[in-house]
Amino acid sequence: MKPGWEAVIGVETHVELSTRSKMFCRCPVDVDAAPNTACCPVCLALPGALPVPNEQAIEDIVKIGLALDCAINERSLFYRKNYFYPDLPKNYQISQYTFPVCEHGSIEIEAEDGPVTVGITRVHMEEDTGKSTHVGDGGGRIHDADHTLLDFNRAGVPLVEIVTEPDLRTPEQARAYGSELQRIVLALGVSDAKLEAGSMRFDVNVSVRRTGDPEFGTRTETKNVNSLRSLQRVVAFEIDRQVELIEAGGSVTQETRHWNEETAQTAAMRSKEESEDYRYFQDPDLLPLEVSEPWRDAILASLPELPADRRARYVEAGADAAAAELLADSRGLSSRFEEAVAAGANARTVAIWLTGDVVAHLRRIDGDIDATVLSGDHLAELSAMVEAGELSSSAAKDVLTATIDGEGSPRDIAEAKDLMQVSDVGEIEVAVDAVLAANADAVAKIADGDMKPMGFLIGQVMRETGGKADPKVVQQLVRAKTQG
Amino acid sequence: MPVDIDIAKVAKLARIALTDDELDQYGHQLEDILEHAERVQALPTEGIEPTSHPMPMVNGFRRDEVGECLDPDSFLSQAPDTRDGQFRVPRILGE
Amino acid sequence: MTDLADLTIARAASGLRTGEFTAADLLEAVMRRATMTEAQLHAYLTLDHEGAATAAEEADRAFAAGQDHGLLQGIPIALKDNMCTRGVETTASSKILSGWVPPYDATAVARLRAAGAVITGKTNMDEFAMGSSTENSAFGETRNPWDTDRVPGGSSGGSAVAVAAGSAFGAFGSDTGGSIRQPAALTGVVGMKPTYGLVSRYGLIAFASSLDQIGPFARTVEDVVLLLEAVAGFDALDSTSIDEPTPGFGDALRTGVEGVRVGVVTELMGEGIDPEVRAAVQATVDRLADAGAAVGEVSLPSSEHALSAYYLIAPAECSSNLARFDGVRYGHRSSIEGTTEDMMSHSRAEGFGPEVIRRILLGTYALSAGYYDAFYGQAQKVRTLVRRDFEEAYADYDVLVSPTSPTTAFPVGERAQDPLAMYLSDVCTIPSNLSGDPSISVPVGVDADGLPVGFQIMAPALGEQVLFQVAAEVERLVDFQDRARLATSDEVKP
Question: Residues A30, B66: contact at Cβ < 8 Å?
Fold first, then answer.
């Protein structure tokens, strides 16, 4: 960022819940079904139809709220947000206004410049709209369309909106926030949180001000950002644009913008003539929501371990921070890591294997870890062999890939490939003695204080033993016997 | 207190296309009705909770179970304009 | 011999079981009555001859097979046109829904079908239930069978008239501010609004969701009970439906009023109430006292503001409820070309009648930024005050009574151009909608013009037992035998 400037960033995230049925009716949540085949009187807003809230969706939003350290309102209310748009069947969206389900939370994120606490203003429940397809010469763009087709399969899918305080300051922090939120939602199992598929999407508010200025600048809102990379780029672009604008003597207009992936720019959306007046009022078709303390407590007790806690636990166990993050982000890696550590493996070694060699090999074979036979027990066995000096760490990597490829257990593979190390001192001593006897010159040089032939002698012993001798033992013996 | 209504703005918000004469007529009628309704404004209601629901009930949930959907033909056949199993509307943005 | 069309449901149900007549006979009787009266009354928008004949056949087959699904089996019942009927056009008397055939049944309709009722057709109403005269129908007004120059009341005027004229044994309507009780009073039949949440609203085309209730019309209190029992009870498709077992109400009909505390609402017996109406109501109160009821006067001080609060709350909710009629998924679409927004605005302007437009505009304004607190917010608080008044009154009284309507049936056209005068027709009925409590209108006499007067009984929430107890006693004490002119055999002969 240009020196002398500071950005103020807030993010609103929409998350589609992966409940079986929609928010207010029993249609399946199935946005891939043929158009309008997952619809009923309620989600089509046929005359007379009424909404009935999905209990699971309320439980899921409470989970999200608790994971974000929010206060859960014992009583919250559904409101109608009134606006006309053809993808909104009722021409109002059932949402929340005052008294959302969750408020006043926070989330810790790790950005490149250190940890940041991001305040969560509110987490509220609402419903998704239908899907519009703009048809015309413009290749699906609304501006050139001559008509629009509407599919209401997505209408009424439960949607959770998570709103932050304006606590973020850099594009990297915005990305780290988005990423951590996605991890939490995935860990809770309440959404598939697929950014590219739109089941998780960001609206990002950005303003800039001169460093030290207590006032916020005028903000813009960029809607429907659908990747973490774009989130970062949108913020970076907006910061630069706004700073340039102000420095050139202009001013920022409060407006809604959209992100064009191809041009890597934001652009103002065609603005409406007047600001919307949503005429919020409490939905008379729906009763107040009551999340009783016992219910809240039961949900709290059922929460899975959160990603941050899991990472901390892995670091505690011995993994380094980067490996801990990679492990915690993958169910397949983390389950094997935990199994291996539980079976007594060296956590640091296993973490490195899983996040390095295993991931690399899977990428090579274009495979999924859950489609392989690799188990935590395999890793523990391998770790034990290395710890016992039975296998060199480079041989261990070969054994590991062979294990993934299904060639057998690590020990079977090591034996079959004749990779087991000789650690027996007596056996190695015979070889050492033979090498020393055959290389009297070298031994004499060492005795004179020239240590250069040491490596040569050790190499000769390794060759003599076919590479299977434990190098540490060889080194010890050669040193002891030449230096008297 | 006479009520002054920007009736054109209200009609636009309600998506009802009215002629100037109609706007004028509805505007006057609304002003009459609201003057009558203004009597409720005089009532002392400080500290009174609003009533949104006649019955003191909460939640009214259903379980997360999938039920039957409608046969698309049963509602698409009632629609003013459809194409390829979808509802069709004119362009959304103006020229 | 009495025309079968004039029997009560209870009497018809018994005759069906003794084999005195068949469901097909009953249907034929009401359809014949409809043929004779409809040209003058226009109670029905749709007479479903075919569907009704099939249902009557099924009922007769069930009787023959010894299957009995309850006392409504084989009984011809009419439905207000805002109740969705699968496969039968449902318009809520609006041009915007002209030709719309619902792909589903309202819960109340499904329960009636399951009970073996024979649905005769769909009755006329004020468009989207907005009105008190059934003049605001896009398809022409309904006339009062007692005097065809007069309105039948509204908005469920068609249902009231079908029952009064004998073109149905019973009917269902919806009551948002008096739309069942007021037309019942003006047509000399019994009409009842149940406790909010007792009957599912699923499939009832919404006017004002926090006030709307489906309820029955019939010619006797006992018949009203039979109709209510068939549709009442929890429905998983309506979040606001009361999740408690519904008791049978039949026992309440024979217990008398000895010791029952009856409060006459002072504010609804004074200014603005026609003297003849007041006199008929007072005479009924006196009879109740003679029969052993403990009668007193009670004040509902907030009731004078109830009307104003109602005319903010109901339009606000309707402005949102009716937003879905936009020409996209069903109903009328304007042929004027333009953007989707133009299409919606013109479809709505062309499809809605003036009263509906008036209320949508009023409600949109009352909810808009800067006015919410002054109008809608304040009205919701007044609603709380009305509820408190009722709570206090019910501490001392079991039921409250008043006229149902300030006047008897008024001439067609009299109030059509004066919205405020029309709104005043609902002054006695609105408080029960705001409180959500049950209320019933029972005919208790006629005025000098021979027009029926309705007596309103109100009870606390889920107080249907005591409501029917008093209503049945009023019916017995008054012994109201007059019939609408157009329902008497002299007049209805072809």
Answer: no
